Amino acid sequence: MSSNIYVEAQMLIRKPVEDVFQAFINPEVTTNFWFTKSTGKLEEGKKVTWEWEMYGVKSDVQVHTIIPNQLIKTEWGDPAVQVDYEFKEMEKGTLVVIKSYGFTETGEDLLKLINDNTGGFTTVLDGCKAYLEHGINLRLIEDKFPQK
């Protein structure tokens, strides 16, 4: 049974909506601020694998819906949750809202997941903003949980 709890992180990125949307679709861009490898671009109905080599972690991502420059609906993780990426054209750029939901955990496990999702997606958006606006890879994901 999944709960009706969701996690939301958002950030205004001062770039056109087309550029920001492509940053999440195209792994050649996304690898500069999030995962390190992908088996391909996000396409509706397809499954790709994202990898974070520095942590030895992979995740299969099922792409359910893509509305160009507006919405990407995915499912991924273990156990799998829904993760939506919404893009809204604004006067000063593009508002990106990431929502994750469909959690099956309860109690302390759910609280930990909410904390991890909130922090993780905030870090992704911070890295995306730095990369798209300033061309800087801050290595945020790599440095979030240093191994040594």
Would you mind describing this structure in some detail?
Belongs to the AHA1 family. By secondary structure, the chain is of the alpha+beta class. 31% of the residues lie in helices and 35% in strands. The protein is built from 4 helices and 7 strands. Strands 1-7-6-5-4-3-2 form a 7-stranded antiparallel sheet, with helices on one face. The mean pLDDT is 94.
Structural class based on helices, strands and sheet pairing: alpha+beta
From the N-terminal CA to the C-terminal CA, the straight-line distance is 38 Å
Biggest sheet: strand arrangement: 1-7-6-5-4-3-2
Shape: globular
Number of helices: 4
Summarize the structure.
Helix content is 31%, strand content 35%. With 148 residues, it is α+β, with helices and mostly antiparallel strands. This is SRPBCC family protein.
What's the helix and strand layout?
Blueprint: E1 6-13, H1 17-25, H2 27-30, E2 37-38, E3 47-52, E4 57-67, E5 71-76, E6 81-90, E7 93-101, H3 107-134, H4 140-144
Antiparallel strand pairs: 1-7, 2-3, 3-4, 4-5, 5-6, 6-7
Family: Belongs to the AHA1 family.
Pfam families: AHSA1
Organism: Chryseobacterium endalhagicum
Features:
globular; 31% helix; 7-stranded antiparallel beta sheet; 4 helices; alpha+beta; 7 strands; 35% strand
